[in-house]
Design a protein that fits this description.
By secondary structure, this protein is α/β, with parallel strands linked by helices. The protein folds into 3 domains: 106 residues, no CATH class; 140 residues, Rossmann fold (3-Layer(aba) Sandwich), CATH 3.40.50; 114 residues, no CATH class. The chain has 14 helices and 10 strands. The longest helix is centred in the N-terminal third of the chain and has 17 residues. The protein is globular, with a radius of gyration of 21 Å. The protein starts with a strand and ends in a 14-residue tail after the last helix.
């Protein structure tokens, strides 16, 4: 897998870091893939921090895909020596998480000098989606006010939730309004980023594993802007499982000037929801929906319904302005069909225990019990069953 043509484009009100990615396999090889442009678009004020000589973001973004296709990863720009040193351990973790991932060679030269940090700045970024986990990290950070580590920027990425070309380039208006509201109320700077990362990598590897490197790539491209970047945990320490963001993985993406932090493993999503309800800002703006439809929160998908259950249990569902106030058991049955894995089952066992102890929502309780009884025999994580499939060339856009 070869990266080439790394460039920075100045757009009307934005700047774009992009590169061309090409398979080095023969076109008839089973693991060959069609070439593609990979890009990350930032606000115009981020321009001074982007460099075509920085290979870090492309190593992070493409490592899993290269391991999945068993190709070396060749990047023409220099890479952080600290990151290069960590890559064998990163690959070892990914190979343990995903049996189809093979350790590969990385061809990139170590960088001699680090990018300059903004004079007098000690910026800390937080990947922020308006969801439960990232809201918890934000509110906890503001409560604790850690010395030198107060979150200064909210990094929100369009193009991570859904692999859709139209949505790579545009934030939903209501989401952008609420992101700006949260930034204003918390006295942070909103940093909206757009990318085609999920869409172009969809043929190569499962997003459940890829997304950690994708997040690291967004931050590493701005290595001179931040001293620390926080990635909100999606699982607690007691139920950790193979996942793209992980307390073992995230810190390894750090460079000489950027420390990547996996934050929030001390609580599961249920407890985080309860913690977040102390904030009216959370109840007014929370968005958990993957965004497959046009609604801010659809109220039908698994993420919406499980959040509604947690809000109901905390006594705050009726105060939430962005989710329906009724939990439909029929919708829950349908949504739970895709639910599996140790984190999922542990959380729903907790939800069921609470409903049983309170003798509440009997129909919802029965649905959850039937679901857990039916999924008692745990299957392998999806990343281990997934198989890459991509279209054969037919008028392919190739260079």
């Amino acid at each position: 897998m070869r990266v080439s043509d790394i460039a920075i484009l100045d757009l009307d009100d934005a700047c774009r870091l992009q590169a061309w990615v090409k398979s080095e396999r023969d076109v008839d090889h089973d693991e060959w893939f069609p070439s593609f442009d990979l890009w990350f678009e930032y606000p115009a004020w981020c321009g001074p921090f982007l460099s075509a000589e920085n290979g870090d973001p492309f190593v992070a973004a493409l490592l899993v895909a290269a391991m999945r296709t068993s190709e070396r990863l060749a990047v023409p720009a220099s890479v952080s020596p600290r990151l290069l040193e960590a890559l064998p351990e990163i690959q070892a973790i990914y190979a343990a998480f995903d049996r189809r991932a093979r350790r590969i060679a990385i061809e990139a030269s170590p960088r001699g000098d680090s990018w300059p940090v903004s004079p007098g700045e000690h910026n800390a970024g937080l990947f922020f989606s308006l969801g439960v986990d990232s809201f918890y990290s934000l509110l906890k950070n503001q409560r604790d006010q850690p010395a030198g580590g107060v979150v200064s920027h909210l990094i929100s990425v369009q193009g991570f939730d859904v692999a859709d070309e139209d949505r790579d380039s545009n934030f939903a208006p209501e989401m952008l309004v609420n992101l700006r509201l949260v930034a204003s109320e918390t006295e942070t700077t909103l940093l909206p980023v757009k990318t085609n990362m999920r869409r172009v990598s969809a043929w190569l590897a499962p997003w459940t594993i890829v997304h950690g490197g994708a997040m690291a790539a967004v931050a590493l491209a701005l290595d001179g802007l931040f001293e620390r970047v926080l990635i909100a945990a999606s699982a607690s320490y007691d139920v950790l499982a193979p996942w793209g963001t992980h307390p073992l993985l995230d810190p390894l993406w750090s460079s000489e000037t950027l420390t990547v932090v996996h934050d929030g493993c001390e609580m599961d999503t249920i407890d985080k929801t309860w913690f977040n309800t102390r904030s009216g800002l959370f109840l007014d703006t929370v968005r958990v929906c993957p965004g497959y439809g046009t609604e801010y929160n659809c109220g039908r998908c698994l993420k919406c319904l499980r959040t509604m259950i947690d809000l109901w249990q905390s006594g705050h569902l009726y105060h939430c302005r962005t989710l329906p106030h009724h939990i439909d058991p029929a919708l829950l049955i349908e949504a739970l069909e895709i639910g599996d894995g140790p984190v999922h089952r542990a959380a729903f066992r907790r939800r069921l225990a609470y409903l049983e102890s309170a003798d509440a929502l009997p129909e919802v309780r029965d649905v959850i019990r039937d679901h857990l009884d039916g999924s008692a025999a745990a299957s392998l994580p999806r990343s281990r069953l997934w198989r890459p499939r991509w279209p054969r060339p037919l008028g392919m856009n190739r260079r």
